[in-house]
Structures are given as C-alpha cells and as structure tokens.
Amino acid sequence: MFFEVTSEKVKKLLEGLQAGKAPGPDGLSPLLLSKAADALAEPVAMLFRKSLDEGRIPEEWRHARVTPIFKKGSKLSANNYRPVSLTCILCKVMETLVREQLIKHLQENDLITDKQHGFVQGRSCVTQLLDVLDTWTQILDEGGTVDAVYMDFKKAFDSVPHRRLVLKTEAHGIGGRILAWIADFLSERRQCVVVNGVQSSEAEVTSGIPQGSVLGPMLFVLYINDLPNVVANYVRIFADDTKVYTRSDVEGAPQTLQKDLDSLQDWSQQWLMNFHPEKCHVLKLGNKRSEAIYYMTGTDASGEARSIALEESDFEKDLGVYVDNNLSFNKHVALSAAKANRVMGVIRRSFDYLTVEVFLQLYKSLVRPILEYGHAVWQPQHKTLCQEVERVQRRATKLISSLKDKPYSERLATLKLPCLEHRRKRGDMIEVYKYLHGFYKTERPQFSFFAGRDTRGSTLKLIKPRYRLNVRGNFFSERVVNTWNSLPDQVVTAPSVNAFKARLDAHWKDLPSVFDPECY
C-alpha cells in the first residue's frame, strides 16, 4: 500500500485536535499542538515519515496511563472495570493516518465481513439492530420462534495476542512499511494505572489492543473478521459484541445452533479469545418457544473444564437498546425515561433559575439524546409508551418558570421544540432516505417491495407489505411506508441528507402535530 505523509494532512489533523483533552504521558497537550499547527506541521510530518520508513515508533509512544472505567456488577471485582488507555497525542495523530490507509485498503477490496457493523463506514449500532430485528419479526410473523445466544468474550480487547494479530493483518493484504509499523506499535508496550490521582508502577503489556487508542478498534475488527466463517446460522457482530441466532421451530435447528457454539469455542481457543460462558445468555422469542438448553465449556473453581448450561434471560441490553423476549421494548422505554428524569433532576437541583437558552442547551445535549437513542429500533407500539416518553419532555419544559403554567403544546411552540413523537417520525424518514440512497452498507432491512429504485427518477414510492402480527407491522420497514409515500417528490429526491432534512421540515412546518402529541 502506498502511504504518503504530507505536512498538509498533518496540519489538518493537528488543527482538529480537541483542546480540552488531557495530555498524554509525554506531557504534550492538544491545545499546544493545535495552536502551533502551522509551525509544527512539517517537523511532525518528518517525524512520522521517519517512523514509517524505519517501521519503529518513538519510545515515549509505547507508554500509556490506564484509567479503569466501571461497567456493571460489583465494584470490588477488577473484572467489572474496562481499561481506557491515555496515550501520547502525536501517536494518536499518526494512528489516524495509518487507520485511514487501512480503511481505504479494506473498503476497496471489500475485505470486512458484512456481519460486522462496528467501526465500519455505512454501518452502526442501529443498522445492526434493524438488520437483526428484520429477520426476527419476519420469523415471528410467519408463526415461527427464534433462539438467540448473546456471546460474551472474556476481556476481548485485552486478550488479543500481538503475534497472531500481525499475522492476521498480513493475511488481509497489509504488508511492507505499514505492517512493520503496526507490529512495532504493538510491541514492548508499558502501562501504569491511575486511580484517584494515584499512579502505580509501570508494567509490561504482553497482549491486547490499547483501549482508547485510535488504531485499536480497527485492528480488533481485523482480528475477529473470520469469526462468522465458522457459524452456519445467523451471526452478527459489533466490535466484540457477538450474537448467533436461528429459527428454532425448524427441525434440527437447536442442534445446529449448539454446533455453532461449539465451533465458536474452537475458534476462540485457536485464537486465544476465550468466551465467558457464565455471561453468555439465551433470548427466546415466539409463542411456542423452544425448550432447548444450550451449553458451553467453562471452568469450575479448581480450574477443571466443565459443561455450563447457558442462562435464559427475559431481556438483553443489545448495543444500548433493551430487547425483551416479546419485542415490546417496554423495559427500554421505562429505563430510558427513568434515566432522563434523573438527569433532569440533577439539572433542576443545580440551577435556581434557567434561561431559555441555557435550558435548551442542557436539554438537547443531556436529556433528549437519552430518550431518542435507537428510536428507529424501539418505536413504541402502544400509546401508553409514547406518553411515557413524552412525559419526560412535558415535565422538562416546566423548568422555564415563565412557561410552566401554559399548555404543553404552547410551551413547545414557544421553545421551538417539536414533540418527541414528531421527532421520531422525522427520524424514521431520515433513516429511510439513507437506506434508499445508499448511505448504509448493510444487507437488511431490504425495501424489496418498492418500485423505482432509480433515485434519479421522479418517484420513490414503497409498496405496503402484508403482515399478520403487530410486532411485524410496527417494525421499521413496514411502519414507514405510508408516511414516506405521502412525501412529495421534491422531498424524497433531495440531493443530500441535509437538503432532505430542510425540505422535510419545510413540508411539515405547518402541521399541528409538530408541537402537539395529541394529534397522533
């Protein structure tokens, strides 16, 4: 791969550094580097070129300060903390340049599995969830059942062996200077742990990808890129989050899913990426759910291997969305509303008086994203759930003392805050636009029912599919059809996402439902 480091590229990256970020172990702050980008661009580019030509990184770049971030469970167990590495800023800039070349090579040669949605352009948490739920809701609508196993790697990023990672990177056609640089980047690393300002002594890092690094996630994606090859059933991955699933009412399906679990464990042992069977769960969907019990091999207290029956769960937190075994998303709505209310409580207690400007900034940045994350996935089926979400915004707008006695719709109009139901409908239309115009690189959901695929034409009308169950009718690709087809050609054929948003807002600006949820 040809890789040229220019001062222009370096200057742009230095200028884009976030000034408020902490300096790395070398003490160089992003603020200093960004302010002095003009003067530093050429000498830094020379440093990068020399590093790349020699396939070596400066010694200081090998050091990291690790901060443990609590995940869940007991705070007394080290296993429940995720390590985040603070590395040198200039190293991160160099990593960015290397990552750009990796991504370009992998995309041009179509080397990343389509089952992976993490750190891949045109895919995301939402595209993966819609992909999965498209299959699940179709199976349920046909009267079938689904068994899904949520896999859990044991310290995934920390387990990756460096030598095998380099071999897998080379197997993807990455060689020469870049491969040598990556190999040196991974080797002879040292780190210390910082907790409450207290720093430990340094220790050598013999395996793993630095969490918090720029290049690390892409290298991890490369390392597990062949994992889907050992699975016969459905498999989807987001970074290390892996789930395998099957239509379980088909004869022999549970047995093939068990074989997939066995194959995944064989893969994990070969590549030293062990699973954590106690944290692997089974989610079963459908009216007549299978009675199959799935097993993985684990170890007992003495270290002896033993067969462990995987725990069946009523719900799983899947890429930030709580997916329950009825696909009702009741739990997700309840937990999201409760979390948003807690944040609003902190805001209320922190300010004696809120101006409109300060309120809008706090609400839009801290509260509303909680209520809207992944909405295309969990759009409420029932009015009561819509009201539960809307109730948070209804309470929040009363924090403006001059508005608290006015009707909700009037408060929203004054603040120019659309009701959340309208925003979800608008968000759905934006997602449809992105799917139809090729912004997402994903298998599903497939709008195989619409006529006029040619986006240069005057229409992009969708055909309303048939369904039996509400769980399918409420799914994204079904529920959006009527609203999308009601939009004029000028809106749906907009030349860009921003143009589509502007035209959509202009088309809907006079609708009473923009500020009044009772219209829905």
The percent range for helix content is 40-55%
- Estimated structural class: alpha+beta
* Rg (C-alpha, Å): 25 Å
Query: Which oligomeric form is depicted?
Result: single chain
Low-confidence stretches: 452-458
The major pleated sheet works out as:
5 strands, mixed
- Summed up, the helix count is 21
Average pLDDT, rounded to a whole number, is: 92
Number of strands: 14
Distance separating the two termini: 55 Å
Shape: globular
Strand proportion: 5-15%
Describe the structure.
This protein is α+β, with helices and mostly antiparallel strands. It has helices at 7-15, 30-35, 37-54, 89-108, 125-141, 156-159, 162-171, 176-186, 216-223, 253-270, 330-350, 356-372, 375-378, 383-396, 408-415, 420-436, 470-473, 476-479, 481-485, 489-492, 497-508; strands at 63-70, 81-86, 146-151, 189-195, 198-199, 203-205, 234-238, 241-247, 281-285, 295-299, 305-309, 311-313, 315-318, 321-324. Strands 1, 2, 4, 5 and 6 form a 5-stranded mixed sheet that branches. A 5-stranded mixed sheet has the order 7-8-3-9-12, sandwiched between helices. A two-stranded antiparallel ribbon has the order 10-11. The chain is globular, with a radius of gyration of 25 Å. The model is unreliable at 452-458 (pLDDT under 50). This is Reverse transcriptase domain-containing protein. Residues 50-301 form the Reverse transcriptase domain. Pfam families: RVT_1.
